[in-house]
Design brief:
The chain has seven helices and no strands. The protein has helices at residues 6-15, 49-57, 62-72, 74-79, 93-101, 105-134, 148-178. The N and C termini lie far apart (126 Å).
Length: 211
Amino acid sequence: MPCPRRPQLLAALADNRDAHGPPLQAPKDFRITSRDPDFDLYDNVGRDADQIHAARYNLATRADLKRWARHDAQPFRAAHPLPDHPWPTPDLTPYLDALTAAQTPAEIDAVTDHVLDAAEPALRALSDYLVAAARWKRENRDAAKGSPSHLLMTAASRALSVLALADEAGVNRLRATYDPTPTPVPPTSPQQGTTANVPLSPPSPGTGPRR
């Protein structure tokens, strides 16, 4: 039977203080009822923000979820071995050296274009995998906003949007150099207008043309 004072005890333990005495400690036989027996109440000492949140609301942390998943996926990983090393890191030295030497927008654009062309295959491959993960067991059908499938599809799109945003930045820089927007001419105020069409004042008496 769950402890009737568990919410109050959890809140006090999470704050690590009590208004009427020293910091509280969990009773020896106290355990949080969890979906997984590996979940225990965290000690106050050495807890990070994620663990404090978990203790307060009786939630598993991200580390808990990942650890349980790794344990349950061990037979699958043994049957489907995957590379344990990351993808090779590209050598950016030539690009950074060229960027440092660039003096004009055209030269910067030449370097950036080469970087984007080199990175596109890896980013496109990542996007393709994220789309495939989003479509796992057709979870993407009628996926609600914020669901795993929806988030994966969004991540797939953003992986490619890196290329589009960087390209747009380069085009905007080139346009500012080669095709700048004309400076608008301020409208002429009535006081500054010409007087060509303004009728002349009638001549004063006695100043008419001589006959």
